[in-house]
Write a structure and sequence with these properties.
- The chain is about 20% helix and about 25% strand.
- By secondary structure, the protein is of the alpha+beta class.
- It has a 6-stranded mixed beta sheet with strand order 3-4-2-1-14-13. Strands 5-6-7-8-12-9 form a 6-stranded mixed beta sheet.
- α3 links the parallel β7 and β8.
- The N and C termini lie close together (about 5 Å).
- It binds one DNA strand through loops.
Length: about 270
DNA sequence: ATGGTGGTCCTACCA
């Protein structure tokens, strides 16, 4: 089973790039973030025509929004109302009655890494605390699927030194601050999650999935960050065969600032 | 220390 996660930054604007991804990689399941479309305007027929008859979408006007496109039937689970905001950052399904799948879009957190002066950063930290509690010991991660669970998404945090172009220069930059990394690690530990991409390509190899738009040339000095992740439970980690970050997508015409991350699981 | 680009939707807001 090939699973992809991609922050598409507007599904309607980039549906042709989604088609290109499908033609090139032939994924079984695609998890999207920042679809930026309210449910009544979701391009359902166009998505089905790409070969995905099973579609879960959870969106809102203008911002955020997540979707799961699948060739495998699934049962839709209720998303939690994270931070009581109702802001369409989570989709949850059970694939084939067998594998639990979560798709998250964690808040970016604004510019200033101080929860007392920046409500967006406070929101991000609260979201991480709620995720930790959700996946805490005895909780549900994989429980409904005999320990087989996958968590993907734009987590908006680059946890390792080798997940950013310069650890030293980004230590005080939102996405790589110690408090965010610590809280993300706590989420990982609570759910017994294993980073499938780093299982295949460990540090110190640098890996990035996002390059800012705010640069004339994104390849200049390769100033990227790894914000997009695929985590699996221990049962599934034994079956991870391949993991790739599709860096070339950043060079496509009118690209998203994120590229897709792909994992193959037997 | 600053400003850089791109998305939605039409006025700022978010990334």
């Amino acid at each position: 089973m090939r699973v992809a996660t991609w922050n598409i930054n507007s599904l309607r604007l980039r549906i042709d790039l989604l088609r290109r991804l499908v033609q090139q990689e032939g994924c079984d399941v695609i998890c999207l973030q920042e679809i930026k479309v309210e449910d009544g305007l979701f391009p359902l027929e166009a998505v089905k025509a790409l070969g995905y008859p099973y579609v879960r979408f959870h969106g809102m006007k203008g911002y955020n929004g997540v979707a799961i496109l699948s060739k495998i039937p699934f049962e839709v689970m209720d998303p939690r109302n994270w931070c009581l905001k109702g802001d369409a950052r989570h989709a949850h399904v059970i694939l084939g009655g067998d594998v639990e799948l979560h798709n998250f879009y964690i808040p970016a957190g604004g510019d200033i890494p101080d929860p007392d002066t920046n409500v967006k950063f406070a929101h991000k930290l609260q979201f991480l605390d709620e995720l930790k509690a959700h996946f805490a010991a005895g909780s549900k991660a994989g429980a409904s699927a005999k320990g087989k669970a996958i968590m993907v998404g734009d987590l908006n945090i680059a946890p390792l030194e080798e997940d950013v172009w310069s650890h030293k220069q980004l230590l005080n930059v939102v996405s790589h601050t110690p408090i965010e990394v610590e809280k993300l690690n706590a989420v990982q530990k609570a759910g017994k999650w294993i980073d499938a991409v780093r299982q295949i390509t460990p540090a110190p190899t640098k890996l990035f999935s996002w390059w800012s738009y705010r640069s004339a040339d994104w390849t200049q000095n390769d100033r990227g960050r790894r914000l997009d992740h695929v985590w699996v439970t221990p049962t599934l980690s034994k079956r991870v065969r391949h993991a790739t970050i599709l860096r070339d997508m950043r060079a496509w015409t009118q690209p998203s600032d994120h590229v897709a991350v792909i994992v193959d699981i037997d």
